[in-house]
Amino acid sequence: MRRTRNTKIIATLGPSSSTLPVIRALFEAGADVFRLNFSHGDHKTHRDLFNIIRTLEAEVGRPIGVIGDLQGPKLRIGTFAQGPVILRQDQAFRLDLTPTPGDATRVYLPHPEIFAAAGPDTELLIDDGRLRLRVTRAGADFAETVVLTGGRISDNKGVNVPNVALPVKALTAKDKADLDLALSLGIDWIALSFVQRAQDVAEVRQLINGRAGLITKVEKPTAIDEIDEITKLSDALMVARGDLGVEMPIEAVPGLQKRLVRIARTAGKPIVVATQMLESMIHAPTPTRAEVSDVATAVYDGADAVMLSAESAAGAYPISAVRMMSRIAEQAEKDPMYRAIMNADKPKLEATAADAISAAAAQTAETLNAACIVSYTATGSTALRAARERPSVPIMGLTPVVETARRLALVWGVHCVQSRDPSGFNDMLDLALAAAERDNFGRTGDRLVIMAGVPFGQAGATNVLRIARLGDTNTGG
Question: Residue 124: pLDDT band by 50, 70, 90 thresholds?
């Protein structure tokens, strides 16, 4: 099954999508990658879902990527003795380390790191920003605040501290256990939450040690200050717009989304746009017009992938949500203005052989009206450079490494094919031609533009460009 669109779709699995028939239907509707959200469910649930995905992969004969999304540190208040209370604007409210249930004047906040970082005028946001408090005085075990925006507050609501780097690690004890499970299963991508600084990414990258790709979720404004270094240390980025929209002015999020897409594309790394993309489809069979425009905007920007969260995990219409997202992406990519918009700020080439070959491959394929670009890659780097150019013809990522094929399922425009390990360059050409013919990239006589790195297996060594025709064999020379 070969997709007719370049933008990939990530579907989160959950109670609404936990059986093989439903997950198969999600794949057939357009899901390319599945996300396991470690904020919910236990290890047995995630192990079972992972095994179902691999069963499906064997059935369909297509590499399917899996993301393990770590929860990260969740900052929450405690409970209230008499149930929810109402906070009034301008009233005083105290947060402290006393573990007794709260009332309308105070509540337990079991996070001394917040008190350590808070100073006068620090803002605390509760329940996704629905309530806003300003700190007037803080000590080692308390913060006295005044209510800026009041409302109903109840047990265990989340706390955000915008524009403050908290002295907490991005990886909790729970995350470490979840990471161990993910790596033992062979999950392809690890998504890291609550990143505040480049050091957070470096520490987790060392723990992963090449066993999975690392996606950094950009959801804290403090991470923006070190975004260049964070991008270097990451294998991919995710624009996690939910928390971003809480911790920074919500009207600034669209511009930041575009900036992050450009940063990732320039670096030649995948970029995912996530959160609330088709939110109304959790309960409704069709999205709003604004949501359709939102998904299309990410496609026009050139994002590698768009993601469904609760829509596919817990919604009433998970399959319809995936099908709708696929239709939106396909329609945007058919727009005559699509490429002009996507490439309005096209990344400049680096002075490397890999970039020169990638640009030449895209130009050659367009000039010759080639059936596709074949990128032979063991590590994935050759296919990533090909995708960075956003060529006008499909990319076939040919690799003997199944882990590479699964990771490339996230990448814009790349149709992943696992092959046997070729005996040499001519054998690789024959494998590429056979795969292109089998997966209906063209007809006998159609040209293929083939790029590879010789010797095989060296990351970043893309240095060969070859033109071949479907129907040829023993194409040496």
Answer: very high
Give the whole-angstrom CA distance, residue 352 versus residue 358: 10
What is the pairing mode between strands 131-139 and 8-13? unpaired
Nearest to 372 by CA among 413, 409, 421, 424: 413
Q: Is the CB of residue 322 less than 8 Å from the CB of residue 29? A: yes
**3-class DSSP state of 274:** strand
> Is pLDDT above 50 for 157?
yes
Sequence length of the chain is 477
Distance CA(62)–CA(76), nearest Å, equals 41
φ, ψ of residue 448 in degrees (nearest 5): -120, 140
The confidence band for 476, taking pLDDT boundaries of 50, 70 and 90, is very low
Determine whether 124 is exposed, middle or buried from the number of CB atoms within 10 Å of its CB (0-12, 13-18, 19+): buried
- Cα–Cα distance, 49 to 23 (Å, whole number): 9
So what's the pLDDT on residue 460?
A: 65
Domains of the chain: 8-72+170-336 (3.20.20.60), 85-160 (2.40.33.10), 353-469 (3.40.1380.20)
Residue with the larger pLDDT of the pair 170 and 151: 151
| pTM over 0.90, yes/no | yes
Q: How far apart are the C-alpha atoms of 349 and 345, rounded to whole Å?
A: 12
DSSP tally for the chain: helices H, then strands E: 17, 21
Distance, CA of 421 to CA of 436 (rounded, Å): 17
